[in-house]
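Chapter summary example: a protein plus nicotinamide-adenine-dinucleotide.
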Amino acid sequence: MPAVTLRLPHWIDGQAREPAGGRWLEVFEPATGRAFAEVARGDASDVEAAVAAAVRAAPAWAALPNAERAAWLERLAAAIEARIEAFARAEARDGGKPLKLAREVEIPRAISNLRFFAHAATQFGSESHHGQAGLNYTLRQPLGAVAAISPWNLPLYLFTWKIAPALAAGNTVVAKPSEVTPHTATLLGELAAGIGFPPGVLNIVHGLGPEAGEAMVVHPALKAVSFTGSTAVGRRIAGLAAPLLKKVSLELGGKNPTLVFADSDWRAQLPVLVRSAFQNSGQICLCGSRILVERAIHDEFRDAFVERALALRPGDPMDPDADLGPLVSQAHFDKVMAAIARARGEGGRILCGGVALDRPGWFVAPTVIEGLGPDCATNRDEIFGPVATLQAFDDETQALALANAGDYGLSASLWTRDLDRAHRLAARLRAGIVWINTWLMRDLRTPFGGMGQSGLGREGGAEAMRFFTEARNVCIALDQGTPTP
Ligand code: NAD
């Protein structure tokens, strides 16, 4: 086997840094199961160095005119755009996602995040309240140095979704990408240094969650933690941050329902419906994994859905014809295969898939399961793979009860031509994001986040800018010619 030659260092204070402890972690290529790189295994001393740099850089970054901070974000976006192919390939390699998905959707969305929040830096407003006796206005000031921790499924997209608003609002950042997919964040660190981004403003620390991640969460100089990842880790972070009364934003897991009514245009929308279950091999927190279908069309829908799922082409992420890549890691592959075995044990009938592909790498065939009710583990626990279940419903009340079963509340999609029903259900579905006759359409101005076990707080637009600033009120007495009581 060839020796691993690619090493991914931290980027701290504008410079590449080897891990203080001299330890590295292997980075794997999911399409082959082989290690192809090593990433710095950061620990508390690396975090300390990054925090010191971020704290040093914070006053000057906060004092820059908003338009200048915006210009830096624009430059970073342009630099990624100029190297989009390298970014897309890096993500296809360590994340296993189809190159076309990375190139056409996810890296462009990361660039949009930076551009959107560059605008927000200059457009984000503040409130004032004019009363008879006084004028109040809100000062929104940066928090200082903050932490961002992101997962492996949409590596650069979710990384920039956090660092862009944090930087736009005038904070400096210590950010940790997932140790499983560290490549594009490292490229970003290198690009930032290359364009002369002010040192210390954006620091990238790699490593494992319980080591580098927790060191960031408990560091008193990092004033907020923006986290996206699993519900279990989100809970742990909330617990660690609570005694410090640290601000946290938690974007967590989901088990999202897709409600298909008989009056919908489901035949025409089938490609989107299938994509909503299987895009990125189901490794998107917003994928619809519980498909609820009105009984009148259930059998016809099931057959068409399964036929289309069978037509999806799993393949090497670099292959332009591949619709689906492998799962991200051996551990995740084992977890998804165990969930499929459990579904069988619960009495589920596997309509297609249910097996690993007979090839190297961590490929699982798109899997559709029927015959399981809302209380079984298969329909309650997040699987985060290419696995969807089908359940039939008789009317709107039952559809709503099935959709709202379980502890998560991230997103839902609703397919109907009846506008009254669409609005009625949108208000009653327990989900932070409801799509009607579409899926994954994003407007970066809208609030993004989950209810229940899917999270705490909102990202996106003004919500993100509010999270990354401290709101303070200033009250001025108005002299109206009469004494103030
Ligand atoms: P994860 O929780 O295992 O890890 C996420 C990040 O947290 C990684 O960088 C990891 O190193 C770090 N981490 C792990 N343990 C930590 C600890 N104790 N302290 C601090 N940091 C720690 O999640 P994952 O497996 O990388 O990602 C998949 C999960 O993310 C799924 O549950 C998915 O639903 C969720 N997700 C949610 C959203 C959303 O917007 N709600 C978006 C994408 C993914």
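Key point: The pocket of nicotinamide-adenine-dinucleotide is lined by residues 149-153, 158, 176, 178-179, 208-210, 213-214, 217, 228-230, 233, 236-237, 251-254, 285, 382, 384, 410, 450, 455 (CB under 6 Å).
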